[in-house]
Structures are given as structure tokens and as C-alpha cells.
Amino acid sequence: MQGMAGSDMFLIVKAGSTLPEVAVRRGDFEDWIAAGMGVPPERMVVVSVYRDEPLPEPGSFAGVVVTGSSAMVSEREDWSERTAAWLAKPIEAGTPLLGICYGHQLMAHGLGGRVGRNPRGREIGTVEVRFAGAGRNGDPLVSGLPEVARFQSTHVESVLELPTGAELLGGNDADPHHAFALGPRAWGVQFHPEFDADVMRGYLAGRRAILREEALDPEALEAATEETPAGTQLLRRFAELALGADRTT
Q: Residues 30, 101, 109, 123: which is the catalytic one?
């Protein structure tokens, strides 16, 4: 565990690491999340649950973010199942919670939804997500986003069924469950709001052989990759909701 708990601190539940070749150049998930949120790294407590580090009580943190991972939620590894069960705690405590990619799926799984291989296949690259309906208009996290926004995405599994009581906020043809809310202070997003175009290109390069085996075109996906400012907008908004707009720096 890194850092110290406090009322202006964020807990990063680290479910895995980025690709080694990306990490060498750019750091890891927690670095990008901190930068996107506009919160200094020293205000982040990082717990690597995939290395069996114990999770603290969430109530002493301003907010909790669960990262992505190359693991699969459906494999139900012991550390993953323990973390899935723990995720009810920040919701019960009223602590703002944001699950990203694996974290989004783990939230859904832990709270009664269903996760498995996406029947539409792998989704990777810069993608469009549609935010529509009452959820978009009233939800405090996504209401300020464009109706159609671009984000970086890379995943094989998806949330196949949302938990009971979850509100669908956004999706696309490749994954209809890209974003959901569970109560007033918990959200899951399948896309990676912390990725920029350079990180996304690093994933496309690292997955090039697999993509070709799956009849995808990594060069075309790389050419279509673009910056996605909506990701930073979403992360900044999450920090604002947790801390207040005047306390994010």
C-alpha cells in the first residue's frame, strides 16, 4: 500500500497493470487516473489487490477508483472475488465509487449482474459512446458530456446483464452497457477515460498479433485513434463530485 488515508485522499483499487512496454514510457493506471482527475499523486492511496494487498475501510476516503486489468472477471480469481464482495462497502458508506473497464465489470459482477465474453467480440481503439435519455440528463457524472462522446477502449469481456437497480447511462453497438450508475454515487464505465491516444496506440501495438488473428486491422485502428478529451472531463467531474470543485488542486 502506498500513501496515507484522509478526507481528501482517493483510494485506487489496482486490479492489474498496463502492458510492460507502455509502463516503461508512460507509467501505470494510477498515474493516468491521478492526472486525469487533476489530483496530486500523493493524494492517492494505491492498493494492489491483484497482489493480495488488503483493502482498507472506504469511509475515510473522498472517493474510490477501481482500475482496469488484463485478468478476466469471469475467471473468478480469489483476489478478484474478495474485491468484488468489498465493493458493496463504499456504496453503503456513501463514498463515491468509479469502476473502469475491469473495475466496471467487477462492480456489476459483485453487485448481482453478469459478466462474460462479449458476444460481439473484442472492442479496441477510439470508440463512440452514446449517452441518451433520462440518465444522461440527470446523472451528475455524465450529464455534462456530449450526447455522443469518444473514448479509448480495450476489452474482451463485458457486462452482459446490469445489476438490479442499475441505471444504464451509455453504450454503443459493440457494447450496449458502456456506462451505468448504481445509486447516486457509484458508476461503472467500460471505456478507459484515463487513456490518451498515445497509450491507446501502445495497446494496439502490443496486441497487434492477436488483433490480426481475430481478423482486425491494427494499422487501421491506429490510424483512427484520436485524442479523447471527454475522458478527462469525466475524471475531473468525478473528482469534483468527491471533493468539490474548489478542492481538486
A: 101
> In CATH, what number is assigned to the domain containing residue 235?
3.40.50.880
Residue 35 lies in a domain: yes
Q: Is 222 part of any domain? A: no
**What are the pLDDT digits (tens) for 36-67?**
999 999 999 999 999 999 999 998 999 999 99
> What value, to the nearest 5°, has the Cα angle with vertex 39 and ends 105 and 191?
25
Burial (CB count <10 Å: 0-12, 13-18, 19+), residue 246: exposed
Active site residue 226: no
Exactly one of 30, 123, 157, 194 is catalytic; which is it?
194
pLDDT digits (tens, 9 = 90+) for 206-239: 999 999 999 999 999 999 999 999 999 999 999 9
Nearest 10 degrees: CA dihedral of 131, 83, 71, 125? 20
CA 80, 117, 27, 10 dihedral sign is negative
Instruction: Report the DSSP pairing between strands 97-100 and 186-189.
Output: parallel
Specify if 210 maps to a domain.
Answer: no
Active site residue 194: yes
39 is in which domain, residue-wise? Answer: 10-197+228-247
Residue at 38 is within a domain = yes
The domain total for the chain is: 1
How far, in Å, CA of 2 to CA of 83, rounded?
18
Residue 117's contacts (CB-CB under 8 Å, 6 or more residues apart) are 74, 156, 157, 158
* 101 in catalytic set: yes
